């Protein structure tokens, strides 16, 4: 009598032996001469199981090591319509997909709703230790009867609900791959990197949720999220949620002019740089162009001079005295409102900190000092903080009302992240959040700002706005509230739904 095919997990892959009858499984498998057996990528577990079941092929599944849990939230928080819509959209996609929501829109609570819907062992990935501990505390409050563990920062737990940093999860991907039925990728734009992607590739998890405010990556690898997690199933912008879940907000651009001395020096430096770029046929309007400039600048004295000129010109635009005068006016105008000041470089951070006596946070700030500064900001002892990119993502920043961006990159992600730092409503239903963007006129900052704030499909702007410019009004969301509310009510009463038999 023929033996029943056995499906087992082996260090991030599946082994199927002996080969089943029929052809349903063959497209998933690759022959491994070393062990003389068929292997299947762990990522293909769900598709393989579906194919075997549809073909009525008998098999024994020893690969699955994750548990069915009993998750019931003790919190009485009522989901917002957009959270119910997102859950419904994710379920209609079969429990795989990416949800794009702005900062402060409740992505963590949405993940808890998904966990309750699937009722499976869950692995949650986050980019920083700060976020890991935030998730851990939230999950302990939400599901007090379930063991929650940590992986990263010196912790090596093995729990049915595990919160891990991307780095730690990638290091242990081979041993974690079959232990969790649901993967939650917070800030999922980190996943497609060469190092992190093995977390998804080595896992059999049939249910996958990606969460981010900005899925797009400069290298185009965000397209890989479609098969590492699933397609984008739901998206809302800050404009769509403004005044509902998020605070009303205005985006105000202010232009400053360089002094005559700064202008002369800036123009000399840009001409020196551009001469080199023209000679080498390099265009800086793309990631590839910048990478080519970096390579070429290391190969000759002329290239090094061009790169040094680029950096000095950038420093002039970022740190012009005109920006500091506007900063002083804005701080005076909005005092004592909680205010965050963002710059792109640490030198300007420390200059502002010294001249205005404002606490500074950079990547060089020790963890304990950073925590103390943020706590003082939260309590109102410090009305203002100046920082570079370290507070863009992965840090729980206390509620603020004003953000002042003195310099930044052309990254859309950076713009969304910095806006998100002032969008939290808090206890103020009538809160108006303000985002000021201060730009050096007649410099490359103008084009960077236009590129950063351009909406998809929008034509390039021809002129810099110099007056307050609120975001255009968007139609109110029409939630599928009845359907979503019914789904959530059924899940809450029944203890969870499992869309598929996994």
What does this structure look like?
- The strands form three sheets. The protein has an eight-stranded mixed β-sheet with strand order 9-8-10-7-11-12-6-13. A seven-stranded mixed β-sheet has the order 16-17-15-18-19-14-20, with helices on both faces. Strands 3-4-2-1-5 form a five-stranded mixed β-sheet, with no helix packed on it.
- It has 18 helices and 20 strands.
- With 502 residues, the chain is an alpha/beta fold.
- Helices cover 38% and strands 18% of the residues.
- Helix 2 crosses helix 18 and helix 11 packs across helix 12.
- Strand 11, helix 7 and strand 12 form a beta-alpha-beta unit.
- The two termini are 29 Å apart.
- SS summary, helix count: 18
Q: Beta-strand level of the residues, as a percent range?
A: 15-25%
Instruction: Give the rounded overall mean pLDDT.
Output: 83
According to DSSP, the number of beta strands is: 20
Query: Helix content range of the residues, please?
Result: 25-40%
Rg (C-alpha, Å): 26 Å
Sheet with most strands: 8 strands, mixed
Enumerate the strands of the largest sheet in spatial order, edge to edge or round the barrel: 9-8-10-7-11-12-6-13
Which key phrases capture this entry?
single chain, 502 residues, alpha/beta, eight-stranded mixed sheet, seven-stranded mixed sheet, 18 helices, 20 strands
């Amino acid at each position: 009598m023929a033996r029943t095919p056995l499906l087992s997990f082996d260090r991030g892959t599946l082994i199927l032996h002996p080969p089943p009858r029929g052809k349903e499984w063959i497209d998933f498998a690759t022959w491994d001469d070393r062990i003389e057996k068929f292997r299947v990528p762990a990522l293909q577990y769900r598709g393989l199981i579906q194919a075997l079941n549809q073909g009525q092929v008998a098999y024994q599944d020893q690969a699955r090591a994750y548990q069915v849990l009993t998750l019931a939230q003790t919190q009485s928080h009522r989901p917002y319509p957009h959270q119910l819509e997102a859950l419904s959209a994710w379920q209609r996609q079969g429990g795989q997909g990416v949800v794009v929501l702005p900062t402060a829109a409740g992505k963590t609570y949405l993940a808890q709703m998904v966990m309750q819907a699937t009722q499976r062992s869950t692995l949650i990935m986050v980019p920083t230790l700060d976020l890991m501990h935030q998730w851990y505390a939230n999950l302990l409050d939400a599901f007090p009867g379930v063991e929650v563990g940590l992986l990263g920062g010196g912790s090596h737990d093995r729990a049915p609900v595990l919160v891990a940093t991307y780095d730690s999860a990638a290091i242990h991907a081979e041993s974690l791959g079959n232990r969790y039925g649901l993967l939650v990728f917070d800030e999922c734009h980190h996943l497609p990197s060469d190092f992190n992607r093995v977390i998804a590739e080595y896992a059999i998890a049939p249910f996958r949720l990606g969460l981010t405010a900005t899925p797009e990556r400069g290298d185009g690898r965000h397209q890989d999220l479609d098969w590492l997690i699933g397609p984008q199933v739901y998206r809302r912008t800050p404009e769509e949620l403004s005044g509902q879940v998020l605070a009303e907000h205005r985006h105000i651009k202010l232009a400053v002019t360089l002094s005559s001395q700064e202008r002369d020096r800036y123009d000399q430096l840009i001409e020196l740089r551009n001469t080199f770029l023209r000679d080498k046929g390099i265009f800086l309007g793309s990631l590839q162009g910048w990478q080519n400039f970096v390579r070429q600048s290391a190969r000759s004295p002329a290239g090094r001079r061009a790169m040094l000129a680029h950096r000095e010109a950038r420093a002039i635009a970022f740190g012009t005295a005109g920006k500091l005068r506007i900063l002083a006016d804005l701080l005076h105008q909005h005092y004592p409102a909680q205010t965050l000041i963002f710059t792109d470089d640490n030198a300007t951070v420390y200059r502002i900190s010294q001249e205005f006596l404002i606490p500074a946070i950079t990547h060089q700030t020790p963890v304990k000092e950073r925590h103390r500064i943020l706590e003082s900001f939260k309590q109102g002892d410090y009305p203002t903080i100046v920082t570079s990119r370290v507070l863009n993502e992965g840090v729980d920043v206390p509620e603020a009302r004003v953000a002042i961006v003195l310099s930044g990159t052309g990254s859309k992600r950076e713009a969304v992240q910095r806006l998100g730092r002032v969008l939290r409503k808090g206890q103020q239903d009538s809160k108006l959040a303000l985002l000021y963007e201060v730009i050096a006129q007649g410099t490359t900052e103008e084009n960077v700002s236009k590129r950063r704030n351009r909406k998809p499909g929008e034509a390039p702007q021809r002129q810099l706005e110099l007056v307050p410019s609120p975001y255009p009004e968007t139609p109110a969301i029409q939630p599928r509230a009845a359907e979503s509310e019914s789904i959530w009510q059924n899940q809450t009463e029944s203890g969870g739904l499992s869309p598929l038999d996994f």
